Amino acid sequence: MRHFFAILLVLASTAILAQTTWVADNNVGAPTGPNIFTTIQAAVDAASAGDVVQVQPSPKAYGTAYIRVKNLTLMGIGFNVDKETPLSSIMGNIYLTNNAANDSDADGAIIKGLQFSYLYPGINTGPVFVLQNALIYNCLFYGISGTWGYSELDGLEVRDCYLSASINIYSVIRNSLFRNNLIIGDTYLYSSAFDTSFANNLLYGSIHIATESGSITILNNNFVGATGSETAFLSKLKYVMVANNIFYGSTPSIAVAGSFSTEFRFNTFSHNLVYATGDDTMPPTGGVAGTENNGLNNIIANPNFVNGAVSNTWSAAYDFTLQAGSPAIGTGSDGLDIGIYGGTYPFPDTNFVLKTTDAPVIQILNTSGVINPGDNLPVRVKAKSN
Q1: Nearest to 244 by CA among 283, 211, 270, 215
Q2: pLDDT digits 0-9 by tens, 325-363
Q3: Cis bond leading into 346, ω under 30°?
Q4: Which of 24, 112, 272, 308 sits most deeply, having the most CB atoms within 10 A of its CB?
Q5: How far is CA 375 from each of CA 284, 369, 371, 378, rounded to the nearest angstrom?
Q6: Euclidean distance between CA atoms 281 and 326, whole angstroms
Q7: Rounded Cα distance, 169 and 189, in Å
Q8: Pairing assessment for the beta strands 21-24 and 167-169 based on DSSP bridges
Q9: Which is it for strands 237-238 and 207-209: parallel, antiparallel or unpaired?
């Protein structure tokens, strides 16, 4: 009964959009129908461009999904759900790919409200293609993975996600944005990167940009780590704009005590705040004479979070709000705050929080325990619409 009502609400909500909604439901006693499948891949394979696949919350994880059609929305119930049995929509890896004929691919894919393992964007089922305008938001997953030979990524956006491991992108990436995420592991861009930005993220790992690319910006992030053991960058960073960030315990360099490496130079560090790192020098040292890092208006001071810790372990109890009088308030290059609460994409909460999706949710479904044959069945339903 619970699944029946949930599916009816979802189907009704999408009918006016001229989309077809397909449902993956592996719960015991789940309803059946032409649009309902017990596996995620069967639901995805049934979908056409522009359709929606909803992954029902379940105590059992679903498997892996290969998406090969354009503008498909793959959505789960989200997190912190206000309902009687707050299960999650959990699945394996998600592959954004193309078909063997290369006449259909995962351009425009939207992934939201899901807990899954790894995202593999641009894997080639058929010939090489360009994966365009994929959006992943409000998801809990390990990270992004791949290998050499994956197709180019253009317009990838990852936002409002909790990534508990690392990001490894081997393909060319351009016009992409990582914002408002909590990223625990390291981020590696191994190939050329163009017009790509990391903005307003809580970063407990480091960023590694392997090639001297173009228009890479690192803006309004909080790099958090333990003093003397964490660095904000790994191995190499050149020609990157680094502005309006807070380095809180995490050294703004490729070495915890600073570096004169020629792999760390020509970067512009401006309007950043540095506190309790292994080397608070700003702009950070790097390169040799004439090739150093440069920048202006950096601050060395305590940002005065309401409740933060110079630690490499994140806690949901932290509150990264800036207290009154914080030197980070209003001192960014744009006149807004330094750190995650300033810039173009200010953090909406005091710390990172995953949300319920915009799908309708059955919050309460109560029925009488026993009724006589032929009697009416009293039902009490409380629901949240989108």
Answers
A1: 270
A2: 999 999 999 999 999 999 999 999 999 999 987 765 443
A3: no
A4: 272
A5: 77, 13, 6, 9
A6: 20
A7: 5
A8: unpaired
A9: unpaired
